[in-house]
Structure formats: C-alpha cells, structure tokens
Prior knowledge:
Layout: E1 13-17, H1 21-33, E2 37-41, H2 44-53, E3 58-62, H3 70-78, E4 85-90, H4 99-104, E5 109-112, H5 117-150, E6 154-158, H6 166-174, E7 178-182, H7 185-195, E8 199-203, H8 209-221, E9 226-231, H9 236-246, E10 250-253, H10 258-311, H11 320-348, E11 356-359, H12 360-375, E12 380-385, E13 392-395, H13 397-414, E14 418-426, E15 431-437, H14 446-454, H15 468-480, E16 484-489, E17 495-501, H16 514-517
Parallel strand pairs: 1-2, 1-3, 3-4, 4-5, 6-7, 6-8, 8-9, 9-10, 12-14
Antiparallel strand pairs: 11-13, 14-15, 15-17, 16-17
Helix pairs in contact: 2-3, 5-10, 7-8, 10-11, 11-15, 12-13, 13-15, 14-15
Amino acid sequence: MGRKGHCEKRSQSILVVDDQEEVLLSTRALLEREGYRVLTAQSAERALEVMKTERIDLLLVDYFMPRMSGEQLVRSVRAFDPLVQIILQTGYCGEKPPGATLADLDIQGYHDKADGPEKLLVWVAAGLRVQQMMDRARDADRRLADAAKDSPLRVMFIAPERAVTASTAALLESQGFKVLRATNPETALEEFMRQRPELAILDDAFFDQNGADLVRRMHTLDPAAILLGQCRGLDARQRRTIRRSLGLYAVHDKEEDGERLLELLDAACDGVRRLQRTRADSSLRGLILAKLCHELRSYLHVVQGYADILWQDEAARQFDPLLSRLAAASHAASELVQEYLDLAHLEKGIVPVRRELVGVDDLIAELRVHTERQIGSRPICLVTAVPVPGTVLLTDGEKVRSVLSHLLSNSVKLSGAGTIELAVEFAADRTDFTIRHLEGHGNDDLPQLFHSMLEGRDVAGIGTPGQGLALAIALRLSQLLGASLTADRASQGGASLTLRLPVGALGAGAAAESQVLH
C-alpha cells in the first residue's frame, strides 16, 4: 500500500525497546515516517531510565531480551505507571509468549513481527487513540477539580419551614458553604436530583420511614453524597442507633453550638473530596469502557449484517446451521455490550425517575413478546397470571419494564427446559411481580448470588452473561423506584425472584386520567 512521503508531526511519543539495533532503526524510521516522536532503548534497563525523564504515551516492547525480558519490563513499568499504553511484540515463530502470560500481563496489544509493518501501525494507532481519550478525560477531570476548589460546597437542609434558623444558615455561608433548603422528603429528592448537593442534613422531623426511603434513594442516586442528621434531646446511644438505622454519616444535636456542626461538616468535606477523587477515577475507567463497548457494538453489527446477507444468498444455504450459530453468538455479544452500557449509565446517576399511569395488562403483553422472542425454539413455556384485569399502577413504566425484562432474560438463559411463570399480586400498599423458573442449571446458586449483591460483596457471577450483570442492572433500577428485589429458592426447585413496588393498583377507570398526568 502506497504512502505519502511526509506526514504531519504528532505530539505523542513512542518508546521502542528491542535488543537488536537493526530492528530499532527500522521501526524508528517506520514510525517517524508516520509523524510520531520516537525514542529507542536497546535494553529494558535503559527503557526504565528513559521513562523517568521523558513523557511516553506508548511503549513498544520486544518480548525476548537478555538480562531483563519484556515481561519483566512490563511488570516494572506497571509498578509506577498504570496508564501508559504497552504493545508487546516478538519475531521468533517458535518462541511466542504463552497465552496465559499474555492474559496475565497488563498490556493493550500483542504484535507478531511476522505480520509486517502494516499490522504494527494498526496496533500503534489504536493504542495512541486510547491514550488520547485518557488524556482528554484526565484534563477534563482536572478542570472540574480546579473548578470545584473555587466553588462552594452545597449543603441541603431537609427540614420543616422554620427548623433551619437564619443564624445557622448565615454561619455556614460565612464558612463558604452554599445553603439549600427542602421542606419535605418529596421536594428534597427532586432538588437533590437537580442540584446534586455534596452534603445533606436530615431533620429529626423526618426520622421515619419516609426519611429512610429518602436516604436510600439519595444514596442510590449519588453514593458519594454525605448525609447527616440533626436532632434535639437524644443521648449519644440514641444518636448512634439513628445513624446506623438510617445510614447517616453522623447525627448532630441542635442544642450544641454551631462550631460543633462546622466540625462535623469539615470532617464530612474531607470524605467528600476523597469520594470525588474516587468517582473521577471511576468515571475515567467508565469512559474508556463505554467507548470500547460502542466500537465493539459497531463491529458486531457488521457481523450480523453480513450474516443476514448470506442468509439471503441461495449459494450459502448449505451453511445455514453455521450462520445461525454465528448470528446467535453475535446477538448474545451485542446484548452483553448493551447491558454494560446500561449499567454504566446507572452508575453515573444520570437516570431520572418519572411517574406515569402504567397498564398492567399492556406491560405483561410486552414482556411476553420480549420473552418468547428470546425463548425461540427452546422447550420452555412462559405462563403469566394477572388476577384482576384492567389494573393500573402509578410508577415509572419504563424502569419496571426494564427490571422485569432483565429478570425474565436471566430466567430464560438459566432454564434449559420447563416452565417460567410471571405472576402479579396486588395489595393495598404494594404490587408484587414474581418470576419463577423451576428447571435449569445454576438455579440453586442464584439466591446466594443475589443476596451477596444486596450485601455489597464481590461475587464471581457479576459480569457473567445471564447472571450477575443482568441482576445488577435490575437491582439498581429497583432501588431508584424505591422497590425491593428478592431472590429465593422455589418450593419445587429452581429460583423465585420478586419485584415489590411500593404502590397499590388503581382501578381500570384510572387509565382515563392518564391525560392529566401526562
């Protein structure tokens, strides 16, 4: 393939490490012709010295080198630089790195020199592209951090109208805080979603179930938010009990002077800063993962498109079984990528919660279509049971539908055959959706996996297609809805999952009121 004699100069730097001088010279010439700034090192020891004094964006490392191998160099570099892009390469056909070694090393690519310079340039371009994304994300993070230093931390008081005195507000404002107010849990949640304060103080007037629900939803929306309580007339033991039961950072006695409140807020601010740093690092990793997921999804769509074209070609009819398997595998991979993207959006806390009238019959009908499409030709029967037709729920229909579709998808993947039952049960103050699948592999482990997720423990099943990832998304969405999600072993074997919404069913005539709500 022909190339231009001159390429535009690039600002990124590449360090090439190889014990053969001829390889260093030829690789350097190839990369410089592409416009890159190239440094070289004829040993791993020299490469480490260069990295201490130069900004390196990508490291191109030969695997077989005397004294210190490429594998040892990679591990040494990762001890002080976890972000630099590393491509490992080798030119010995009979002495390639073991697959386990490549999987264990924290590298971004592996190039066989026998593949030629074009393949090497593809690896280099891909590695430097990711490095550019990381640099932009870090720059944006630094700008946000600098802006945060100059902007006041926001403190929201969730208290009755006159519970926050002017003197308390003035004291906090004099110390650089911005004071926000909400007079009840309902408006507090709306303001919390809109303003995103770093600190919130809950008055003892709301130390009840409404307050507990509010605290849980706020922590779901923003795990980094620090929530305090304020009370009057409680001793230290009672304050500890309240703090633990509501999940608060601390509880302040109103009878103590303002300096004590400032002391608590200063300590909380240190926690806020640490959590903001952690959240920024997590956001950076999420940005890179989301970008890779989007690109992977594009390639999967290409695979699915070519499979569809071949299906329509009479000459390819003999390959129908292979094409079916290819389409099924690419479709499963696309679903997994989409689940990762959905979970990333939930973790960012950018998902709003709406209230609308949702017809249960229509909801069940849509879930049936979705599930039967996934069942396909498998020997699985879906049974639905709704005791009262024409009922309506006041909730976020999109999120309820998403939770149940993830749970049903999980059940289909775990059930080799048999029956999946979706049953609805109504009560005055709640509505239960229960999914039971009675046969299939792995069902006995599902309740333990789910309970471990609820307790926040690391679980090996999370990220496994059809298990932890789908359940993680369902769990996050149910928390946003203020609902509970439980898993138990079914009485006849298998598993039983229940979504309990804290809303009772409305009569069929309530559907006519939907125009008012919308």
